[in-house]
Amino acid sequence: MTATDTHRTIEAIFRIERARLIARLVRMVRDVGLAEELAQDAFLTALSEWPRTGVPANPGAWLTATAKRRAIDLLRRDRMLARKHAEIGRDLSEEDDAGIAAIEAAMDDDVGDELLGLIFTACHPILSPDARVALTLRLIGGLTTDEIARAYLTSEATIAQRIVRAKKTLGKAGLSFEVPRGRERQERLSSVLEAVYLIFNEGYAATSGANLTRPALCAEAQRLGRILAGLAPDEPEVFGLLSLMEIQASRLAARIGPDGMPIPLTEQNRARWDRLLIRRGLSALERAEALGGADGPYALQAALAACHARANRVEATDWRRIAGLYDALRRVMPSPVVDLNRAVAHCMAFGPDAGLALLEELERNDDLRNYALLPAARGDFLLRAGCSAEAKLQFERAAALSRNEQERAFLLGRAKACSV
Question: Which is nearest to 149 in space by CA: 160, 139, 165?
């Protein structure tokens, strides 16, 4: 393996292990910013040592042990700096031993799910709702500030400020980084669901990079959703979100062709959809509806996904029902992205002119000005209306706005096809 290959392997391992490592470290040092620094230090040490010694059999354990040693070194240094030279002696040594034992216990003690504990802490009410989700996406999803900004259709500087302030606020509060109980858990649940939802979305459609999807993020979000369902068995929106993720994940294998290009929903091989995940998703949706949550935003989105999952052939898709569900979703969860998807549904249900009319309103929305999927949708509607030359320009515009390499290539391919 070349040095370049080793570095790529290390980077891939760190992306996989990063969130868990930070979660363990936060429980130990009670400081989000410091936990991130310690995790980064462990990564840099791996970059230095593994090309020479080889990748260890258990890289996660290696990174954890390295971060733990660094944390212990910091503890000793801080205590040394905090005392006068004359006071350093037997008492300090005994306190160091006790502090180090506490660190090791915090790293090794498996109480509940570490990542979920970190998410609930990051979603503490002392933070604003926007700061809660931004911090969670950064810590758990590993998203960059740019990726989070694009998910929220806002500026990178705004997201960076939210994250920095959130870390400082949590650091000053001295919180317990564990899953809360009772009313405290309930108060944070909606923010936790939003964070898990956005982590899944980044996995389902990567904002940037060489790959269209990040399946590991989807799998992690699904795992967290299943744990939440066990923690809150009477919360309909928990089951609505779980249903949505399970059904959407069922299509992952069919979304990408052998060449890495995206395959639109209407052109996917439905035999490749994971029927087990669909059954799980439909069961969770039934549970959400039985709990009285049919009109919740996640349950409505799950119902939308279920319309596609139940159609064995694209021609069997009930687009009128989908359009109606989007009308209902718009009322409970208004957003420009929902409006864009609603326009797509109305185009499929009532024809391209209906979709284009709804897009006219969205063109005036500043939040969508640099959103690649808006001109992509307009291009599709125009192509369906027989206006290939105009569609070509829209696909080219969408490609110029896209930050994902495979998506950009797909859009350029659609633009080229308009000239044939």
Answer: 160
